Amino acid sequence: MNLNKHIDHTVLKPTTLIADVEKLCAEAKEYGFAAVCVPPPFVKISKALLLGSDVKVATVIGFPFGYSAVEAKLAEILLAMVDGADELDVVANIVAIKNNDWQLISNEINHIMPVIKSKGKVIKVIIESGVLTEDELIKCCHLFGPAGIDYLKTSTGYAEKGATIEAVKTMRENLPKNVQIKASGGIRTYEFAKELIEAGATRLGCSASVAIVNGQAAETKY
Fold it and tell me: Considering the domain boundaries, does residue 218 fall inside one?
């Protein structure tokens, strides 16, 4: 299995250095990863470093907790697209999900979608599956799937529980066929990455990407 084309090579730690981003982009080009995923301040430099390659630039919105106002998320999205982001990984309002406020969730995605799609960008919605009940996870699939998103993403990597085979299978069973799944959080081995793909994920968010494709275990969390 060629895992490299499924991987978003990721660095999202709050202490990220320019040198980290330079290394990330160099590795992404060398290994042919699908994308790099970087903090918003590093979108512009990542775009420049990857010029002429097929590697996409992704960034995060409302990260990592998702409870910022939709107006703030829209501002982040607009700035990220101006800087050259190809893909937006948007954290859903987890507080609203846990409080059963599906109207707020619906309003949020209905405001965000037209802005991203008007520029032809890819949207991945992060729902933090590790802190959701199965019912909440299924409701997210039924709400976000028909909204026209490109990917539903399991995790930020900052919750106590990241991607699981069970969550990916549940998502695949309850999403429209055209909506893809990105698994992230706690992916440290080739074996686990392969299992997630077999369960239905088509993208993997990993900071240990090089170790994974080389069949080595990694200690990193995300």
Answer: no
> What's 153's domain CATH number?
3.20.20.70
Is 220 a member of any domain?
A: no
β partners of residue 56: 35
Its pTM surpasses 0.70: yes
| Domain that residue 113 falls in | 3-213
Phi, psi (degrees; rounded to nearest 5) at 51: -55, 130
Q: Which residues are catalytic?
A: 89, 153, 182
Distance, CA of 16 to CA of 171 (rounded, Å): 31
∠ Cα 49 50 51 (to 5°): 95
Please tell me the distance from the alpha carbon of residue 155 to that of residue 138, in angstroms, as a whole number.
15
Q: How many CB atoms lie within 10 A of CB 23?
A: 14
Q: Which pLDDT tens digit goes with each residue over 60-112?
A: 999 999 999 999 999 999 999 999 999 999 999 999 999 999 999 999 999 99
Parallel/antiparallel/unpaired status of strands 180-184 and 203-206: parallel
Residue 222 lies in a domain: no
